[in-house]
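re: ur question from yesterday

yeah so i grabbed the chain u mentioned. its 460 aa long if i counted rite. heres the sequnce exactly as i have it in my notes:
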Amino acid sequence: MFTSSSIFLPGYLCQLDDDCVLHSKEKVNSAAEDLFTIGISKEHIHTLPCLTDNEAIDYRCSCTFQLLSKDSNNGEIELQYAMRSAKIAILLGGDHFPIATPRIQQIMKHVLKELNGRYACSENNKAIKYPLLRSDLSSVSFASSWNNDMDCIATFNYCSPIHANQGTKEELLMEANDFCRDCNITTLILRSKKMKEIAGRLPPFIDDVLHLKPQADGAMKVALGEGDESSISVFYHKPEDAFQHPNGNTMLQALGWMMTKLHSIERKRSENKKDFRLLEMYCGCGAHTIPIAKCAIFDSIVAVELDQRLVIACQDNCIKNGCSPQANNCKGDKEDVTPVYSFQGDAGEWAAKSLLRRTKGLVASSNTTTCINKASKSYWYGQDFNVLLVDPPRMGLSQEVRSLAINGSFEHMIYVSCGRVALKADLDALKVAFDVVDCTITDLFPRTDSIETLVHLQRR
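ran it thru and got these structure tokens back, copy pasting raw so excuse formatting
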């Protein structure tokens, strides 16, 4: 019988018995001190550490474990979960991972129980319940919705080609579908080199829903679920093999902060100003894009993403939420939602082409827009935007994106960063044109050294 107190967290700086609240406060305060060194004043920096033990567990919606064989007390070989730390596989010491979402923890227990399950095949012998799935199984990955009552996908990774030791395809899939049912898994994916089989719901994807609720003080409350009649619901359809925010709690914090900032920027604009536009780079599947569009803050949004899988997901989510250009009849003005024009492309390449247009004086006039040219990348390269939203990988912004931010038309910039070192360098470069209005530091992965920083910059 496993207990939480017996579980070890390989690679985590703060174990289950440690003071996670103190650890969280120390790391966000350390990150704040880093930003003081590049001239950001204390009055503009805010920290949001974990305030309770509960905030440091049950949050991670994607995780991977090795499966190691170990002799049990009754002499049988059983599989156990392990994680790698410094290239060494270390046993968890339990049948679940307290850092994962409750949905994943529940599935983890079922998976280990069923993989180690046996039945009496004769008076003195027992047979493995799922021999085909268990054969040559080396690791398992889990991905769940942010909402605990929605989807969970498990991926089994094999060290030899599937079907080599797992019988026929039909036999393997029959066993996999039974396993999905017994473990309450939405979809089970079986992978080996250049081979993949899928059981359960097809195609494999993760659904999610959250809602937005404006507050009397101008803030925006963001929570999981559909909310009530006064809320704005946002629906997501996320591919299982592409990036999604791994911490739903931090994602909600960031989105609430962002929506509040953008509403404040909009309210302070002159009423006679038109064509309020947002350029979002590194948009992913539309995690930020769709809520912003559904609140009709902007007249138009252009979203750029390199990963084609995420571009397709973003476009599908726009259709699902009624903010695709087709749903808006290409009007391009704020009504119930803002039309989103999403494109596949590298952020640095987009920035370079936009800068070239500006250098040559080829900025397009919005008076000549049509539905056809708005669907073209080349049209948007030549447009002015009021706000730039970036959520780059850990390495930060490319030199081209920095140059576009500094030399472009942006009045405001919203920067979401998971790279502490890169952010410091980027902000130091951007200060030639922008002032930091607000900088909020959150705990991205409690019990680790990872943080997420939310920055609002305004052009001088």
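noticed a couple things. Residues 329-334 have pLDDT under 50 and may be disordered. also The CA atoms of residues 312 and 419 lie 26 Å apart.
anyway ttyl
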